[in-house]
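Translate sequence into structure tokens.
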Amino acid sequence: MSERIFAGKTKLMNYKMIATTVFTPLEYGVIGYSEDEARSLYGTDNVTAYHSAFKPLEWVYVENRPADICYVKIVCKKDENEKVIGLHFLGPNAGEVVQGFSVAINMGATKEDLDATVGIHPTVAEEVLDIRLTTSEELTGGEGCKGCGF
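Result follows.
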């Protein structure tokens, strides 16, 4: 924005695609559209959303850790080769995770691009790359819990 004001640049800022994080005890990070916003804007049949509930590996070994469940959702636009138009992450280091993916999303990354990326293990960011269920499929067993509110 300052380059437009002081350097005569004309490129506009896409305020919808700015990575944002809420630093609560369980962080929430987002970039882009929610599933509901995307369906309203692009049509229900033109949006696929993938999701996963997970427990970070670092929590598995902490005996007194509350049974919090983390969550990640990717919102994709079908008619643009499943271009990622939204990423929502609820879990540790959400700010770092969303910031890291924001470059790829702003460059037009697709679900296939994410699927082709090898995650760094054991990080929570790799959870974004392992999503296979759409939101029309219920989370059960290893993917989370029924009725967990996601």
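Note: The domain at 20-136 is CATH 3.30.390.30 (Enolase-like; domain 1).
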